[in-house]
Amino acid sequence: MIAPLIGSWLQRQKSQLAARRKVALISSGLTLILALGAWIDFSLLDVPQAHDLWPLLSMLLGQEWLIVDALSSPLLPLAALIHFLVILMTPPTKRRRFPYGLVLVMETLVLLLFACRLPEGILLLMALSAIPPWMDLKARGHATGLFWMHTLTSLALMVGGWLLMESDQKGGPLGPVLLMMGLLIRAGSVPFHLWVADLFENASFGVAILHVTPMASAYAAIRLILPDAPDLLMDLLGVLALVTALYSAGMALVQQEARRFFCFLFLSHSSLVWLGLEVISPLGWTAGLCVWISVSLCMAGFGLTLRAVESRVGYLDWKHYRGLYRHMPMLAIFFLLSGLACIGFPGSIGFIGMEMLVESALNAYPHVGVMVLLAAALNGIAVLAVYFRIFTGSIHPGSISLAAMPHEKWAVGILGILIIGVGLAPQSGVNSRYQAAMELLTPASNDTWIPSHDQASGTLGSLSDGMNPNH
Amino acid sequence: MEAYLYWTGLTLVASPLLLISGLVAQQVFGLKLGEKVLFRWTLTLTSIGLLACVLHAIGMLYGSRESYHLELGQWVALDELEIHFHFKFLFDRLSLPFCLFSWVLCWTVVVFSHRYLHRENGYERFFFGYGLFVLGMTLASLAGTVEVLFCGWEMVGLSSALLIAFFQERSTPVRHGLRVWSIYRFADAAFLVAVLLLHHLSGEGDFEHMTGDSPWPITHSVMAPETAFWVGLLLLVAAAGKSGLIPFSGWLPRAMEGPTPSSAIFYGALSVHLGAFLLLRSHAILLASPALCMATVGLGLATALLAGCIARVQPDIKSSLAFASLTQVGLIVAEIGLGLEVFALIHIIGHGCLRTLQLLRAPTLLHDYHTIENAIGHRPVTQSQKSFGSMIPKGLSDYLYALAHDKGGLDRFLNFFFVNPCMGFFRWCDRNEKRITTSLSVWVPSQPDRSSRSAKLIEPMEIES
C-alpha cells in the first residue's frame, strides 16, 4: 500500500516523461507482485483473517485498521493488476497528459480501502478516493460541478446514514437506507448515474476506468451494511439494481460515442453484482463475488482496448464503420474476447459466475432471473455491434502502423490468459468466493449458521409474490 | 472394449479442441502460416475427428452398445450448494449419427473451402470461425448434460455471426451478421432459463436424470405435465431461434451473405438443424405435455407452409435454397411433435446431405447450365406442367405472392413490436439525459461553457523520441 505512494513521490522528482513513466510502471508492478504475494500468503495461512505483522497504523491510530480476509485477499491483486495495466497500456499519444502520480495515489487509496475493516476508515477512504478524478477533471479544464454534486451528496448520505445507524439503538430503517442510497449514488445506480457518464466523457479514460472498475462501493456496502440490512433496504437495492442492469443495457445499445457506451456497459454489468448481493443466500453471494471479479477484470480489459483504439484514431464514435481489423487484429480479438467474457460466454471467466447468478435469481424470483438474462442478451448484442463498428467496414486508410505495440501485447496477453485460463479452470476461484461468502454470511455469534440450498431469501417481495414458485 | 470406446471418444472430443487452439494461437500471435499450413492443420485434425467418430461407431455396433457415457470429470463442483457442472458426453443412437453426419460434412467443407477461398482476404479468419463451429457442433451433439449442450450452442451461434460478417469490408454482411446474433441472443436466453430450470428440478444437468435411464428414443420425462410444458416451451423458443422457425425466419436469407462453404454447413445442414436436434434430445419433455406437442406440430407446419411459399419467389439461388431448407426443417419439427423421432433424425441427415450438395454447387449453377447448353446445342426446354400454383384462385395467388415477397412480414412484425419501440425509448432517454447533464452543469456556479463538449479534437499521434 505504501509502494505506490512512494512511487508517486519518486516520479514527481523526474523531469523526463519517459523516466516518470518508468518509475510509475516499476512501482505499480512492484505493488502487483506484493499484492499477489499477500494473496498467496493468505491462502497458505488458511486462517479467516490476516493481520499486519508490524501494526504501524494500529500503533499510530490506536485501532487495527487493516485486515485481510477471504473477501479482500483477491481484490488487492485485482486492483493492483488493473492499475498496473492502465499504466502499462497508456498509449504514447496520451502519456504527456496522463497523471501517473494521481493514478498511483488512487492505487494506494483503493488498496487501503480493500484492506480496511473499520467503518470510519472506509468512509474516509471513499471520500479521499473521489479527489484524484476531480483533480484530473480540473487539470483538463472540464466542469467538475456534476461530479462534485453527486460525490458530496453520496458522501453526506453515507456519513449521515452511518451516524444515524450508530446512534439509533432501535435499529430503525432510516440510517441504513440513507447509507445505501449514498453507496448506490457512488456506484452509479440509475437514476443517479449521470456523473459516471460525465466522468467518462471528460476525464482521462484511464482515470475513469480506475475510479469505477474496482467497485469500491460494493466493498463498502458489504463491510458497512450487508448482509444484515432490513428487508425494505434489500427491496430497494434489488429494484434499483435490476432497473440499472436493464436500463444501462438498453442505453449501451443506442450510444454513438465510445466512452458513453463503455460507461453504460459497465453500469449494466456492475449492477449484476448488486443483484447477487441482494439475494441473501450462499449461492447469491458466491455468484455476486464471482461476477465482481470477472466484471472488474473483463471491463478493465475492454476499456483499455477501447482506449488503445481511441489513441490511434482519435475521438471514437459509431457513425460509420472504421475497418480497423486488418490494422490491429490482436486488439480486435481481445476486444471481442473481453466483451464476450463480460456477458458470460462459455469458457470465459464470466461464465460460471453468470450461471450461478441467474440460478440464484431464478431460485428467489423467476422473473428477476429472466430480466437478468434479458440484460445479458442486450449487452451481448451491444458488444458485437460495437466490435463490428470498430473493426469491420472499408479498410482504414493509413500508412502508419496501428498494430499493437509490445507493451500492449503484454497487457493483452496477461488479461487473455486470465480470462480464458480462469474460465477453463474456475474451481479454485469459485471455492475462494464461496468461502468468502460463507464467512460474510455467518453471524458473528458462536452459533454456526448452515444455510440449506433451498433457502431462497431474496427480498424482492413487492414485485413478484404471485410468481414465486416457492410460495 | 471400454478402453477402446474411451480413447476413440476422447479423441473425437479432443480433436476440435486442438484444432481451435492452434487457430486461436495463429490469430492471437499473428503468425503468418500460409494457406497450405493452415489447411493441412485443419484437414488433419478434421480427418482425425472423423476417423475417431467412425471407429467409435464401429466399436459400439460391434459391442452392441446402445449408449456410452464419457465422463471427463467436473468442471466446477460445489457440493454445499449442489452446483455441479460435469464434462460428460453421451454417445447414443441420436448423438452418434448426428455427430458422424456433422463430421462428414465438415470434412467435405474443409476440402471445398481450401480451393474456394484460395487467396481470399480473411482465409485465416474463415478457418478460425470454422474451428469454433466444429467445436461447438461436437459439444452440442455429444453433450451428456444441458450445460455442455449450452456451451456448444453458444459457440455455434458466435461462429455463425462471425462467418456471416466474413466479407467485412461491406456493411451489408456485417449488419446481417449482427441481426442473426441478436436473434440468437434472445433464443439463447430462453435456452439458459430452461437449462437452469432443468438443473434446479433434477439437481443435476444430466439428460438421464431428466429423461430416464432408457437409451434414446425410448425415454420418458420425470416431470409433471405442467412443468414440462413451461420448460418445453422455453426449449421450443430456443429451437425456433436457432433453426429460423416462425417468427424468427427473417434471419435465414440474411445469413446467405457469408461464404458459400459456411452457408452450406451452417444453413443447409448443421446449424439450422441444431434446434431440431435440441427438440430430439428433449423430446421426452415435449411428449409429457400434449399441448406442447400440438404447439410444436403447429409451429413446424406453419413454418413449412410459409417457407415453401417464400422459396418460390426468391430471385437468387442461395435464398431459394435457404427457404427450401427451412421448409424441410419445419416438417422435421412437425415430425418431432408427432413423436416420429427416428424418422425425424433420418430426415435431418438426408436433408442435410442434399442441401449441402446443392449449396456447394450453387456458385457453379450458371456454369452447369452452360455445360448442358453446350452439350445439347440449345437451351433446355422445360415442359409446362400443371403446377400446384395454377390451381389456386388468382386473388389468393396474388396475396400469397405478396406475402412471400415480404417474407411473411415477420421482420416487419419484429421491428414494429419489439425493435423500434425499444430503440426509440432508449434514444429518447439518451437525448434527455444529455439535456439534463448539460443543464445541471450550467446550473452549478462558475463552470466553464459546456457547449463545445461535443467537438472533440483528434489528437495526432506523437512519436516519442
What features would you highlight for this structure?
heterodimer; A: 471 residues; mainly alpha; two-stranded antiparallel sheet; 22 helices; B: 465 residues; 18 helices; globular; disordered C terminus
Description:
The complex is a heterodimer of chains A (471) and B (465). Chain A is mostly helical. Chain A has a domain of 229 residues. Helix content of chain A is 70%, strand content 1%. Chain A is built from 22 helices and two strands. Chain A has a two-stranded antiparallel ribbon. In chain A, α2 runs parallel beside α6 and α11 runs antiparallel to α12. The C terminus of chain A is likely disordered. Chain B is mostly helical. In chain B, strands 1-2 form a two-stranded antiparallel ribbon. Chains A and B meet through α5, α9, α11, α14 and α16 of A and β1, α5, α6 and α18 of B.
Total number of helical segments of chain B? 18
Order of helices and strands of chain B: HHEEHHHHHHHHHHHHHHHH
For the biggest β-sheet of chain A, the strand order reads 1-2
Oligomer: heterodimer
Largest sheet of chain A: 2 strands, antiparallel
Q: Strand-residue fraction of chain A?
A: under 5%
Query: Based on DSSP secondary structure assignment, what is the total number of beta strands of chain B?
Result: 2
Structural class of chain A: mainly alpha
Major sheet details of chain B: 2 strands, antiparallel
> What structural class results from the helix and strand content of chain B?
mainly alpha
Mean pLDDT of chain A: 86
Summed over residues and divided by their number, the pLDDT of chain B gives a mean of: 84
Low-confidence stretches of chain A: 445-471
Shape category of chain B: globular
How would you sum up the global shape of chain A? globular
Q: End-to-end distance of chain A, in Å?
A: 49 Å
Helix content of chain A: over 70%
Please render the helix and strand layout as text.
The complex is a heterodimer of chains A (471) and B (465).
Chain A: H1 2-12, H2 17-45, E1 49-51, H3 56-61, E2 67-69, H4 75-88, H5 92-95, H6 100-115, H7 119-128, H8 131-139, H9 145-167, H10 174-187, H11 194-202, H12 205-212, H13 216-224, H14 231-254, H15 258-278, H16 282-313, H17 329-342, H18 350-364, H19 366-391, H20 406-424, H21 427-441, H22 461-464
Antiparallel strand pairs in A: 1-2
Chain B: H1 2-28, H2 34-62, E1 68-78, E2 83-91, H3 95-116, H4 123-142, H5 146-164, H6 171-202, H7 207-211, H8 225-243, H9 251-254, H10 260-269, H11 271-281, H12 283-287, H13 290-311, H14 317-337, H15 341-361, H16 365-376, H17 394-405, H18 410-443
Helix pairs in contact in B: 1-2, 1-4, 2-3, 2-4, 3-4, 3-10, 3-15, 4-5, 5-6, 6-8, 8-11, 8-13, 10-15, 11-14, 11-15, 13-14, 13-17, 14-15
